[in-house]
């Protein structure tokens, strides 16, 4: 039985459309289009233990609850269309679904992230952060790009799929990846790979506010080691580097896109539009809108 058939069977679906993607070398990322109506009854989904991760992108509003290892159930929750869940399958998982269900399920072997780290020359990813019901625009856009490909000719589809699979894997690694426990060098500095991983994580999570404790946890450091190592290596504190990077990202979005000031503020991790305008004006001497008029590409 193929990976896609196993996943479909867990959801009580006899046949489901699937895409098998090999982004790099040996490991295959599987995308399954799941669609079923459970009416008002509940269907228990038991996902067996597997050295892989599962991303579920909801294509309609879906009602389900988690079933805990002791059999207890969390309250029934509606996961809105366009939101996603990300879980590890190392210990298996169980949920109960009710009503209409339609989603894209991405089955991603852990070994794919090893291939990705080796190819990119980046630190290994030990785990991904569990997420439930979050809005991830990148995953949502990738899902939208994949939907027409179920019906494309093989020769067209097979040319595009590896690029999309690689983009998805890299995004998940950068935004949700957790590195094994890291240590500073004898000089108290970060290695080039450690510095790259930290900055990549910050860049991928900029809109979320990137608190230092979350950066440290994801990159395998204690907060003290991260802060001292980053300062010793870059000459800037973590917060100073983030502030500088936010401003650089904002200037790039202002000059190259038609996004609103509010959209750029959110994308660059500012609490609100007013704070973005005040911070930008203080740094650049003019408000974002005026700066955009002078620097539009």
Automatic annotation (TrEMBL):
Database matches in SMART domains: HTH_ARAC (SM00342)
Gene3D superfamilies per the UniProt record, alphabetical: Homeodomain-like
Residue intervals of the HTH araC/xylS-type domain: 196-294
UniProt keyword annotation of Transcription regulation present: yes
Key words of the record: DNA-binding, Transcription, Transcription regulation
Entry annotated with the keyword Thylakoid: no
SUPFAM superfamilies: Homeodomain-like (SSF46689)
Name of the molecule in the record: AraC family transcriptional regulator
